[in-house]
Amino acid sequence: MGTKTQKGLVPNVNREIKTMTELIAKPIVKDQFWIVTDGEKKVGNIAANNAGYGVQLNGNSLQFKNTTDIKKKAHIRFEPIKSNNTKAALPYPEYPTTARTYNSMFDVKRGLHLYTKTKKSKCLHAAGWFLIEQNGIKQTIFCPKYIFIQRYPYQGPFKTESEVENLINI
User: Fold this and answer.
1) Which residues contact 68 (CB under 8 A, 6 or more apart)?
2) Residue 157's pLDDT is what?
3) Are 91 and 103 within 8 A, CB to CB?
4) Which of 52, 102, 112, 136 has a beta carbon 3.0–4.6 Å from 107's, enabling a disulfide?
5) What is the secondary structure of 43-85 as a DSSP string?
6) pTM
7) pLDDT digits (tens, 9 = 90+) for 122-167
8) At CB < 8 A and 24+ separation, what contacts does 140-147 make?
9) Could you give the CA distance from residue 7 to residue 61 in angstroms, rounded to a whole number?
10) What dihedral angle (degrees, nearest 10) is formed by the CA atoms of 97, 102, 106, 111?
11) Which residues touch 17 (CB under 8 Å, ≥6 apart)?
12) Residue 103 CB partners (closer than 8 Å, separation 6+)
């Protein structure tokens, strides 16, 4: 009879605890690591390991086989991963580029937005329109390779081709 009363009391106690402080697992690394909070502050974490999932709450370590067991036994609610449907904005949108930019960086010395055209490329380009002088000839170039900027005298960057053409005409 003692076990029946204990079984009957445990869910009620858990419900009271759950309503007072519901534990929420916020995903950090998909299906591998979560931070557990009580709604306001961090109280533990959950990490995937060889044996399943290790849960650390307030200095106590527990081991579970799957996330369903964690939900049932530890009364932790897992938040879904928030999807980011927004398009990635250019980090330096001031000057136009030819297409998609990868590996964006800023040359502080020259004040230029540099980028590559593919993820694995090592060839840097400078965003915007430039007036570059090669062998005494002035040329208008859109998004030139960064090595041209380093080797030859230039003016720029400019937002439009007409700004560069106005410099040539003056």
Assistant:
1) none
2) 92
3) no
4) 112
5) EEEEEEETTEEEEEETTEEEEESSHHHHHHHS-EEEPPPPP--
6) 0.48
7) 999 999 999 999 998 999 999 999 999 999 999 989 999 998 888 8
8) 140/164, 140/165, 140/168, 142/96, 142/98, 143/96, 143/97, 143/98, 146/107, 146/112, 146/114
9) 24
10) -20
11) 75
12) 115, 116, 119, 121
First to last CA, the chain: 100
Reported as a single tens digit per residue, the pLDDT across 29-60 is 888 889 899 878 888 999 988 888 999 988 88
Alpha carbon distance 80, 59 (integer Å): 25
**Residue closest to 45 by CA, chosen among 57, 27, 59, 28:** 57
Distance (Å, whole) CA 125 – CA 100: 12
User: Which parts of 7-41 are beta strand (E)?
Assistant: 23-29, 33-37
Query: What is the SS3 assignment for 87?
Result: coil
Report the sign of the C-alpha dihedral through residues 74, 80, 82, 83, in that order.
Answer: positive
Peptide bond into 144 cis (omega under 30): no
Report d(CA 1, CA 3) in Å as an integer: 5
Give the number of other Cβ atoms within 10 Å of residue 125's Cβ: 23
